């Protein structure tokens, strides 16, 4: 009996070879290390649904471990199955990360080994800079700005510059301003989701030094403190060349002193796809109708900094620039539009007039022209007298509603009938902050709220901003919006094609009748479009 038991015990010891579980644990451990030290931190940094991905990683790891340790499958099948699951999980996050709009283009992951070598070299450079107390790089037309030595005024200025930029990045600012204030004090303003918020303050000497640093880095004349100067500067967030972000630097003199404006990645701000602007389905259909008409003038109106340029560029992209002649007239192009000839108007050139430039371009028989703004009456008159049977003109203007835009245009033309005859459409818009999708809080609206908003009683749920999320039964600041409750912006639009009926009302200056006609055609106003977005959350 003793001999039999000993033999059985010895047989049990060799049922599984020692190297098999060790190999499986090494594979599982390597995967777990990548997920915990790289993927988890990366998801937190770019707000890539960290909690959801962690749950997915745990589920995949559990299933993969069960393949080997449950003993159901032969080891020769179980180990490859585990490898496929774990590697597939890593690849899935890799693909999702690189496709996400939340990850800047400069920090997308690459499968090219040469890029890995480049990143390693850049990491060494970053480490050297951080040893000096610096963590950013600034690249202008003359190359990268040299890092100043410690214990020098230039070093203190550089630290202040990096602090200003870093805070802007942390709050997702699209624009950073350094402005002179009262009693010689300078202040920093950050524009986040279209709303300006105050930042740090500094002495007049520090403020002037910060502005001079940016001007010098851009190759601008530091001694020219009056004129409006503009140049491009690339800022390496984190010090790595692969993360350089284009920034437009503008300086100008005021009665209180110089001011500086930094527009972060201006091209990205105006290259939003037309499907993502916030247009309702019915408005997309109306917009398509306007584009297909390809005749007359279309007004594109919005208050300042409310996305007018983005809409203008999107409308021009609806025309095939390779089979037709598409041009623009702009004083400050925000991005390159592929295939479109963008004509820069320089007001500092002697004898230059915006309307004259517009007339010159319209006489070249273009198929579509984007006139970025209407600075004077002469510009409106040139648009009104264009060959509208063969040319589509998009005219940008500052107005808060479609009716106001039409009135301003007709008044500038000076002939109500001529203005009406030239118009074939009007687009008006306003931008609103979008509720953070990670922390917005649903609530059942009261009848009073629905009545005040003009919403039907069938609406059972609305959302309000929160800024807080529950983590292990404790409220914490939302990592996605930083506690503001908002993330990004959405457009509220009014889109109206203008046909013979609308033209008659415009010629008669009957704005009340025109408003009623828009309503009869069930075309949403900016306000009603906004309410529909509210209902959608």
Give an overview in words:
The protein is α/β, with parallel strands linked by helices. The chain has helices spanning 2-13, 19-46, 50-69, 75-99, 113-131, 153-170, 204-218, 266-269, 281-293, 308-317, 354-362, 377-384, 402-413, 416-422, 447-453, 500-507, 511-520, 526-535, and strands at 136-140, 143-144, 175-180, 186-192, 195-202, 229-237, 244-254, 257-264, 296-301, 326-330, 341-344, 368-371, 392-397, 423-435, 441-443, 462-464, 468-471, 474-477, 486-497. The strands form 4 sheets. Strands 2-1-6-7-8-3-4-5 form an 8-stranded antiparallel beta sheet, covered by helices on one side. Strands 11-10-12-13-9-14-19 form a 7-stranded mixed beta sheet, sandwiched between helices. A two-stranded antiparallel sheet has the order 15-16. The model is unreliable at 1-14 (pLDDT under 50).
Proportion of strand residues? 15-25%
Q: What oligomerization state is this entry in?
A: single chain
Radius of gyration from the CA trace?
Answer: 30 Å
Number of strands: 19
> What about the largest sheet?
8 strands, antiparallel
Shape: globular
Q: Which structural class matches the secondary elements?
A: alpha/beta
Euclidean distance between termini CA atoms = 75 Å
Low-confidence stretches: 1-14
Helical residues, percent: 40-55%
- Number of helical runs? 18
Question: What key attributes describe this structure?
Answer:
alpha/beta, disordered N terminus, eight-stranded antiparallel beta sheet, seven-stranded mixed beta sheet, single chain, 537 residues, 18 helices
């Amino acid at each position: 009996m003793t001999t039999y038991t000993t033999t059985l015990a010895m047989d049990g010891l060799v049922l599984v070879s020692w190297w098999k579980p060790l190999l499986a644990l090494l594979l599982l451990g390597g995967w777990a290390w990548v997920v915990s030290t790289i993927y988890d931190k990366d998801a937190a940094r770019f707000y890539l649904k960290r909690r959801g991905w962690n749950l997915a990683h745990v589920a995949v790891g559990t299933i993969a471990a069960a393949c080997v340790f449950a003993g159901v499958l032969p080891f020769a099948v179980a180990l490859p199955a585990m490898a496929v699951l774990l590697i597939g999980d890593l690849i899935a996050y890799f693909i999702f990360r690189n496709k996400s709009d939340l990850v800047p283009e400069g920090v997308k992951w690459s499968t090219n080994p040469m890029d890995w070598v480049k990143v390693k070299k850049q990491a060494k450079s970053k480490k050297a800079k951080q040893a000096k107390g610096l963590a950013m790089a600034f690249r202008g037309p003359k190359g990268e700005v040299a890092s100043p030595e410690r214990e020098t005024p230039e070093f203190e200025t550089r630290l202040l510059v990096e602090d200003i930029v870093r805070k802007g990045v942390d709050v997702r600012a699209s624009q950073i301003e350094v402005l002179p204030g009262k009693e010689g004090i300078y202040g920093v303003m950050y524009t986040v989701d279209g709303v300006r918020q105050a930042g740090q303050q500094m002495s007049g000497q520090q403020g002037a030094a910060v502005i001079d640093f940016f001007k010098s880095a851009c190759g601008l004349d530091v001694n020219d403190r009056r004129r409006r100067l503009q140049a491009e500067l690339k800022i390496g967030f984190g010090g790595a060349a692969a993360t350089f972000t284009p920034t437009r630097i503008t300086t100008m003199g005021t009665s209180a002193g110089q001011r500086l404006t930094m527009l972060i990645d201006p091209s990205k701000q105006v290259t939003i796809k037309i499907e993502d602007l916030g247009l309702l389905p019915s408005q997309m259909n109306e917009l398509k109708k306007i584009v297909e008409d390809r005749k007359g003038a279309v007004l594109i109106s919005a208050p300042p900094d409310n996305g007018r340029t983005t809409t203008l560029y999107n409308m021009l992209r609806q025309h095939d620039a390779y089979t037709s002649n598409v041009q623009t007239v702009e004083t400050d192009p925000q991005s390159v539009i592929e295939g479109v000839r963008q004509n820069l108007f320089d007001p500092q050139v002697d004898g230059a007039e915006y309307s004259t430039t517009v007339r010159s371009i319209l006489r070249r028989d273009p198929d579509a022209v984007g006139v970025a703004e209407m600075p004077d009456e002469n510009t409106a008159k040139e648009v009104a007298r264009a060959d509208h049977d063969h040319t589509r003109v998009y005219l940008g203007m500052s107005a808060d509603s479609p009716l106001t835009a039409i009135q301003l245009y007709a008044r500038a033309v000076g002939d109500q009938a001529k203005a009406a005859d030239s118009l074939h459409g009007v687009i008006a818009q306003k931008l609103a902050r979008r509720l953070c999708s990670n922390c917005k809080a649903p609530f059942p609206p009261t009848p009073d709220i629905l009545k005040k908003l003009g919403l039907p009683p069938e609406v059972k749920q609305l959302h309000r901003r929160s800024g807080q999320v529950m983590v292990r039964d404790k409220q914490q600041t939302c990592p996605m919006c930083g506690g503001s409750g908002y993330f990004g912006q959405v457009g509220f639009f009014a889109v109206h094609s203008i046909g013979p009926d609308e033209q008659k009302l415009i010629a008669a200056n009957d704005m009340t009748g025109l408003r009623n006609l828009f309503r009869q055609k069930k075309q949403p106003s900016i306000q009603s479009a906004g309410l529909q977005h509210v209902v959608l959350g």
